[in-house]
Amino acid sequence: MRKSVFNFIGMVVAIALSVVGCNHLPLLSTFSATNVTAIKLSGWGASPAEQRLLKNVVRDFEVQHPSIRVKYEVIADQYMDVIKTRLVGEAAPDVFYLDALEAPFLMSQDVLEPLDGYIKPEFDLPDFEEALLNTFKYSDRIYGLPKDYSTLALFYNKKAFANAGIESPPMTWEELRVDAKKLTKDTNNDGRIDQYGFGETPELARQAYKIKAFGGELIDHNSRAAFANQRGLQGLQSVLDQYQKERSSAHKTDVGTNSGSEMFGTGKAAMVIEGNWAIPFLKETFPKLDFATAEIPKVNNQSGTMIFTVAYVMNKQSQYKSAAWELISYLTGKEGMQKWTGTGFALPTRKSVAANLGYEQDTLRSSLVAGVNYGTPWQVGKFPAAIMNNFDNQFISAMLGEQSLLQAMQRAQNQANQLIKALD
């Protein structure tokens, strides 16, 4: 393996090695006595219900492939640090989760096995949503197969809408701001807002489509931050105006909650923009909440949302690539994917599975499914942390009025690019 691979994580390798030292599990070998090949599948921590579901799907795979056994490992903390460190040490799992955000760097480093040579016509590659599949392509090769995805949609409180005399969800961002004013309430007349019209999430992962709606870009062709330009700032200024001048939106910390979903569920915000993950959370945690979803209101007459997706990828150093491919092809095949996404935890990346499950007609999920046709995949080049963290920190500062939006974005862009230059 090339010595130059992952030179940018030199600062974190020591920490990650200590994690691996405590939790390292070596690659399992073939059990010669039974002629069974054992491979390792690693992913990050999820809800207990999701973990049980994946274990059940893997068990079904093993029943159909009696010569393969799968060791499923959950990496609870510092997932990507652990994976990168194991790749450097040639001790990575055979198959593992890879988020689209992290994919560009790993795909460029010759540590993932290209899957093109394994894919046969009967696998039905065209059945995948093209935008999702393209997220895991690099230099015209496929390095991952998306296992599920979510877009973002507008979640709105039906009772709050009725009380405010609003008959339908907003279709444009201007309409959303008008509705948010009507929905913002001080029910106790004590000068404190009890319900904000809109719950804002001031992170690049939730703001990128607004930047692109006015022709702005997140990165340039060299993976450098490029969001501090006048076109991109137009999409962000309305966020500040609504928060600072109209006072009809709030951030989660403003109302003592931990997420947009919680802000919505507790009634602190009548509208939020969230993903598919919010649906089971809201149903389980706030069963009496009467809510609906709609596509995100248009920004500058442009439909927009974000696409979040995760793939199964194969370690290029795996000793059991044939078995690893059998697992990937089952988990992302029509049967395995229907089992995995059938409970509603995530949306299927195959069009045929989505049709079988009826998600295009699902009253809560149809808006999320529609977004895959025009959404922006959540990727910001080879050095996402530098760009994302600097944007988030400075954008919140601008929302709080500590600096102008232009100053904040220029500072975020400059700091991100200085860091990227040092890492590249």
TrEMBL record:
The keyword Transcription regulation belongs to this UniProt entry's keyword annotation: no
Biological processes per GO annotation: maltodextrin transmembrane transport; maltose transport
GO molecular function, one term: maltose binding
KW Transport (keyword) present: yes
Highest rank taxon of the organism: Bacteria
Keywords: Signal, Transport
Matching InterPro entries: SBP
An example Gene Ontology CC term for this record: ATP-binding cassette (ABC) transporter complex, substrate-binding subunit-containing
PANTHER family in the cross-refs: MALTOSE-BINDING PERIPLASMIC PROTEIN, MALTOSE_MALTODEXTRIN-BINDING PERIPLASMIC PROTEIN
Similarity section: Belongs to the bacterial solute-binding protein 1 family.
The name this protein goes by in its record: ABC transporter substrate-binding protein
Species annotation: Brunnivagina elsteri CCALA 953
Organism placement in taxonomy: Bacteria, Bacillati, Cyanobacteriota, Cyanophyceae, Nostocales
